[in-house]
Amino acid sequence: MNQAGIEAVYRAESRRVLATLIRLLRDFDLAEEAMHEAFAAAAVQWPRGGTPKNPRAWLVSAGRFKGIDRLRRRARFEAIEPELAMQIEADAEAVSEVDDDSIPDDRLRLIFTCCHPTLAPDAQVALTLREVCGLTTEEIARAFLVPTPTVAQRIVRAKAKIREARIPYMVPPPRELPERLDAVLRVIYLVFNEGYSATSGDSVTRGELSAEAIRLGRLVVALLPEPEAMGLLALMLLHESRRATRMSPDGEIVLLPDQDRSLWDRGQIAEGCALVATARAANRPGPYVLQAAIAAAHASARSPEETDWMAVARLYAELLQVEPSPIVALNHAAAVSIQAGPNAGLELVDRIVESGDIPDYYLLHSARADMLRRLGRFPEAESAYARAFELARQEPERRFLARRLAEIRGILGGPT
Amino acid sequence: MKYLCLVYCEASTLEGLSPEDKRNLDRDSLAYDRELERSGHFIAADALKSVNEAATVRVRDGRMSVADGPFAETKEQLGGFILVEARDMNEAIRLAAGIPLARLGAIEVRPIHVIEA
Q1: What value does the mean pLDDT of chain B take?
Q2: N or C terminus: fewer CB in 10 A for chain A?
Q3: ipTM for this prediction
Q4: Model confidence at A71, in pLDDT bands (50, 70, 90)?
Q5: Is B94 on the interface with A (CB under 8 A)?
């Protein structure tokens, strides 16, 4: 095998090898160094002696020995507890052959450890992207528009916390699973959204971030086929299917009804809808399943008019029960306004305005403006659009609102 | 990616070491270079002589001037460097943490900027 071959093995296997080495060596940094040395040894030995039958097992086994060797040396130089080194050695040697069946579990262990609730959300995201997905510090920094040293620090601190708090390297027991899985899914969705809201930063790297989140989602579904994990994967696929149509070539926002549906990715839609169907078979669907079901209702309509708004409004009402939030309430109101008319929608929106939960959320004001416009209440619509424009931060959103404002002012005959 | 690990230390810290500690430090530093070589991270490393041996050169309007001493007057002085090859900043930081002088001074880890030709 040549250098290119070894690099291909690195891309395919390094995350699995690392996950297992962290279990065997009980330390992120030691495992990373051990893995590095194992690949370095492979680069020397494989071209000469041939590629082993099971490269992953070879790398884990080589990495384990390198790690133990390093621990022995370190125990001589530093104040590392000799018992710890001996314990790890005994443990590692007890596993005489690398148990291939435990490797999927190791990846799941790694995900749960990186998304452990004692770590700050920023740290969970950075650690997951680096250790589970194999992104470099620099890539994570670029994707999140954060300086590299900031990301580096988050990762260093997270690892120190895992060590000091003795966070166990394991898949949580069934009674903790729903809550812990929720934390994992939240991290994945955060990564996805960071990549999906392509309003700032380099859109290419951002797109890769979404692809990374979908890959992670697939991994979790494959290892732990829980309905909510399927729901999240479906939700991401259904959003992603529309990526190409969300922006016009000159960077303007294109709203759902105006998107060119012939450009939506049919493969992703089919996969997303199938996942929704499977996940909904479970009783009491959770928030991801419900959001995915809503996205599926939009994705399966061939035109905006064919959208089953009754179903969408019902799903939002259901989502509001499971996850009460003013944002969900706003979406519910928007669906109702289409299904039952702008008056019914406005009534719900005004209730959100009165609650005072999200007074500065520009979409609240732009949704309200839209309903007022449809009701022909133009002066009120104008001031609501103006308020929304004032609050919107992203340029494409501001341009969109400026256009709407100009239209209304045209109708009112005032200055534009 | 290449990273330059700049090793800073106060002169007085090093002067205060016993001859035995100094020998151990030198031995450990060389041993760490070998370790980095074995693991494939090593590109180059060297220790620097005292800033008393330094000269600072400038050219202005075609005229050269030389001053004795270091360019920056700080308590912590540049005492050596290790140039490493690492996958990313966090790997470079891990390698820097292994430098024996990190326990006495500080290591500044600087990514190498490749100037496009």
Answers
A1: 94
A2: C
A3: 0.88
A4: confident
A5: yes
Tokens describing residue B63: 């005229």
Chain A, 14 to 43: residues with Cβ < 8 Å from chain B are 29, 32-33, 36-37, 40
Q: What is the 3-state secondary structure (H, E, C) of chain B?
A: CEEEEEEEEEHHHHHCCCHHHHHHHHHHHHHHHHHHHHCCCEEEEEECCCHHHCEEEEEECCEEEEEECCCCCCCEEEEEEEEEECCCHHHHHHHHHCCHHHHCCEEEEEECCCCCC
Taking the Cβ of residue A69 and every Cβ of chain B, the question of whether any pair is shorter than 8 Å is answered with no
User: What is the structure's pLDDT at A96?
Assistant: 47
Q: Which two three-digit tokens encode residue A98?
A: 């690398």
Q: What is the C-alpha separation between A89 and A6, in angstroms, rounded?
A: 28
Find the closest chain B residue to A148 by CA distance.
Answer: B89
Of A77, A137, A156, the CB nearest to B88: A137
C-alpha atoms less than 13 angstroms from C-alpha of B15 in its C-beta half-sphere? 5
* pLDDT tens track for A96-152: 455 555 666 898 999 999 999 999 999 999 999 999 988 899 988 988 888 999 999
Residue A65 touches partner B, C-beta closer than 8 Å: no
CB-closest option in A29, A40, A138 to B89: A138
Which residues in A lie closer than 8 A to residue B94 (C-beta atoms)? 29, 32-33
Contacts of residue A56, Cβ cutoff 8 Å, sequence gap at least 6: A13, A16, A17, A98, A100, A103
Question: CA–CA separation, A93 vs A285, rounded Å?
Answer: 45
Percent of all residues in chain B with a pLDDT value above 70, rounded to a whole number: 100
Q: Is B24 on the interface with A (CB under 8 A)?
A: no
Pick among A6, A18, A29 to test the B interface (most B CBs inside 10 A) = A29
Q: Inspect the interface and report whether the beta carbons of A36 and B39 lie closer than 8 Å.
A: yes
Whether B1 and chain A come into contact, CB under 8 Å, resolves to yes
Q: CA-based Rg of chain B, rounded to a whole angstrom? A: 16
A2-6 contacts at long range (C-beta below 8 A, 24 or more positions apart) = A2/A47, A3/A43, A5/A46, A5/A51, A6/A39, A6/A42, A6/A43, A6/A46
Who contacts A377 (Cβ-Cβ below 8 Å, separation ≥6)? none
For residue A401, give both structure tokens. Answer: 């609102």
Work out how many CB contacts closer than 8 A connect A with B: 39
Tokens of B86: 């690492």
User: Measured between alpha carbons, how far is residue B23 from residues A51, B5, B27 in Å?
Assistant: 44, 22, 6
Q: What is the pLDDT of residues A357-411, one digit of tens each?
A: 999 999 999 999 999 999 999 999 999 999 999 998 878 888 989 999 999 999 8
